[in-house]
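for the recovery benchmark. tokens below, seq after
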């Protein structure tokens, strides 16, 4: 729901989350077992952290053995909290498992499915429920709204069917009678 890239999420420390301001500050990334900078200037923008998300993060922090302000939000237990977890292990152990349980993935299906799919799903969902492109662009922190529209927001088959039905209904609607009211 934050639109964070996996490298940005793994790069979060507890001090980056500000529940009072309802923001998550993107200060670093974790890529190839190294701390790096966010992808672009636009990527450095803080993302919303609404109350419901804050509550889930607070619960996660209470359960984590690494809950200090300078600890990683998604700390590696195997590395005793000194590094974040591995993105590929998160995908294998959690995301793909959830995908199979939800019926999004099917056994034997050859599709690429990872954390980045969540950014695409977020964009597609927000556009489908009527959020304006500028809002979606800002959440994903794209420098250009065309990136959001052309690469991230995917059309849904139900939306295409609904649009076609609306057009056909309008096309075949009986003609309206001209008004007989006299305008003075």
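predicted aa per position
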């Amino acid at each position: 729901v934050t639109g964070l890239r996996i490298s940005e999420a793994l790069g979060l420390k507890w001090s980056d989350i500000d529940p009072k301001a309802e923001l998550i500050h993107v200060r670093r990334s974790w890529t190839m077992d190294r701390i790096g900078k966010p992808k672009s200037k636009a990527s450095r923008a803080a993302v919303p952290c609404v109350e419901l998300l804050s509550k889930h993060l607070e619960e996660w922090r209470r359960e984590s053995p690494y809950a200090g302000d300078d600890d990683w939000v998604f700390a590696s237990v195997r590395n005793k909290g000194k590094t974040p977890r591995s993105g590929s292990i998160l995908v294998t152990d959690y995301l793909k498992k959830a995908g199979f349980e939800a019926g999004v993935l099917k056994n034997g299906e050859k599709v690429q499915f990872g954390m980045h799919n969540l950014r695409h799903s977020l964009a597609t969902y927000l556009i489908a429920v009527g959020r304006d492109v500028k809002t979606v662009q800002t959440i994903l922190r794209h420098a250009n709204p065309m990136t959001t529209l052309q690469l991230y927001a995917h059309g849904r088959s139900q939306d295409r069917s609904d649009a076609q039905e609306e057009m056909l209904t309008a096309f075949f609607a009986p003609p309206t009678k001209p008004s007989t009211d006299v305008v003075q």
